Amino acid sequence: MERMTKFRVGVFLVLVAAMVFFFGLRAYNVQVVNATVSDNSISTDTYTTAVSAARGQILDRNGNILVSNRASYNLIINGYVLYNSDNPNESLRQLTRLCKSLGLNYAEHLPVSLKKPYEYTLDGYPEAWQSYFHQYLSARSWDSDISAQQLVKLMKNSYHIPNDWEEEDCRRVIGLRYELELVNVANLPTYALLTDVDSDSLAKLMELNVPGMTVETTTVREYNTQYAAHILGRTGPIYAEEYEQYKNKGYPMNASIGKDGLEAAFEDYLHGEDGVRVTTVTSDGMVVEEHYSKEPKAGANVETTLDIGLQAVAEKSLAECIEDLNENGVPNTKGEGKDAKAGSAVVMEIKTGDVLACANYPTFNLATFSEDYDKLMADERSPMWDRALLATYPPGSVYKPITSVAAIDSDTLSPGYSIEDQGIYTYYPDYQPVCHIWTSSEGTMTHGLVDLPHALSVSCNYYFYEAGRLTGIDEIDKVAKAMGLGQPTGVELPEEVGYRANAETKAILYADKPDESGWYKADTLAAAIGQSENRLTPLQLCVYTSTLANRGTRYRATFLSKVISADYQQLLEDVEPQVLSRFKISDTAYDAVKEGMRLAATEGSAKTFLENYPIPVCAKTGTAQHGSGGSDNASLVVFAPADDPQIAIAIYVENGAQGGNLGRVAVDILDHYFSEETINETYPGEGVAN
């Protein structure tokens, strides 16, 4: 009995030992053998993916979100998984065919033309992509001088492309094989076949079940307003000529950057820092581990000086004004202004330099820019051109307050000095310009005896010919420069500086015509009324008006108010008003000019729309000759209230005929600005930041 018990105990211990050995062997196999397989990259692959940081939002001064981000889907192909599938070439052929049928242009950088006879297209790629191509040739030990035709043949053989395939299929598939090979050859992130794929196309593409093809979620720009297109700007891929600049900032070649407008101007704030994700997958595509080696950091949010409600009013009113001119012309004229085609309106805060609105007509919609591009390019009115900042025009009579300040503060004329308008200015026998009222009345009317304020009110050219002659161009130009004309405004966007009428400017402009390059007495007369070689942007006219209202203090024009962290918890930058220059305008000169501009609004050239405006307004109209045929250009500058100026407005319309007719646009802008109901208002279509 005792022997039987010992035997049973022995058997039990053997069984226990066997079980321990079995499970120990299994644990060893799982923990050691499989780990060794993984470490040797036999059953898994580890790759990195560049993760774009969410771009910062762009807001207006009241917190309305103008540009934000929306979810977007990119298609990524993992070559390791694809090449462990049964027929990778056929999968790629089906994929390229479906992309073609859906009208999708996928990313491909093989520098060879898509059709025979094959030719190299290296010049169209950034230097880095050209370098990757040479690395590819070197890795395969192929001659760097190989012809494009021979290269395609070698690639077809190397990638085992079937001989019975159509040539187009062959070329497209080897293009994708090239992209996938570059990931290893040039140590690039995973290959993104398509970016921002629409949901319908995405569903059809995923139905192919291409091994290794996965969907990556990212973000793209979304425009929450149809206004301020020229100012807000667009984003897009880095161009070949831009890459070196952004390479130094650590941008990947497929990064999206601000291309123009505020998107480009504030790129350093908005872009953020891209991240890197590390992913390990099995040969059948199963993700076994994923983490960030570098977390993406969202870009900062930019609060602009724009008031999107005011911007909308300015754009709508400007469009209505020009379209009405096209249909009806200026009232009580012989169809003048019916050829009006384009214009701009700029609104600034006088005591800060903040640009509140910057409107152009015609304009475009950023949300549909790609779809509308061909139509926009074909439009002879150039709707994509930012006239407010880039077009330079003769200002016309809106320039006359400058001549007035120069005449008074150089002790040439007193405000009460009166001149008898005789219609034709006959001081010089060989140059005898006329007053506009004389021309329009066919020689039957003049302004009679006028002093300086009343000359401003009725915009009497005759008075300012005499004032200009007596004052001289040097004194006039000194004031014009101090008011910001022909000077950079300091704005963050590209702008034309233009030029002022003076001897130096004319010498430069007529350098190839020595007989015409001198400054003549007649030039001073023309310059005094805003003609001659004066060429200024609407933004400069608004800065000038603001500086005049500010009694000579000129602020830098700006679109930037604040920079705020991505989570809206930290103020990163708060922009303070910046004074660019100070110029003393005497009380005598200021009061006389203000009186003249006030009279222009109540009983002079701007009274049609401003005569009964409930808030005291100062205005000056302009009718500018331009030498391009058709109606004269029209200009109008306004500041209000007259006794405590807050905003300045400059409006300019090509072939608009008469500046007074633009008063309707000024009224709409003033109504919105001074309406209590619009303070901190949220507008339909614009989100609001929390």
Question: What's a quick, concise take on this entry?
Answer:
The protein is of the alpha+beta class and 690 residues long.
Strand segment count? 22
Main structural class: alpha+beta
Helix content: 25-40%
Our count of helices gives: 25
Largest sheet: 8 strands, mixed
The coarse silhouette is elongated
* Beta-strand residue percentage: 15-25%
Q: How would you state the average pLDDT, rounded? A: 90
Q: Gap between N and C termini, in Å?
A: 87 Å
What does the radius of gyration come to?
Answer: 35 Å
Low-pLDDT sequence parts: 1-7, 11-16, 18-41, 677-686
Explain what this protein looks like in three dimensions:
The protein has 690 residues and is an alpha+beta fold. Helix content is 38%, strand content 18%. A hairpin with a 6-residue loop joins β20 (633-640) and β21 (647-654). It is elongated and about 100 Å long. Mean pLDDT is 90; it is low at 1-7, 11-16, 18-41 and 677-686.
Key features?
single chain; 690 residues; alpha+beta; 8-stranded mixed β-sheet; 5-stranded antiparallel β-sheet; 38% helix; 18% strand
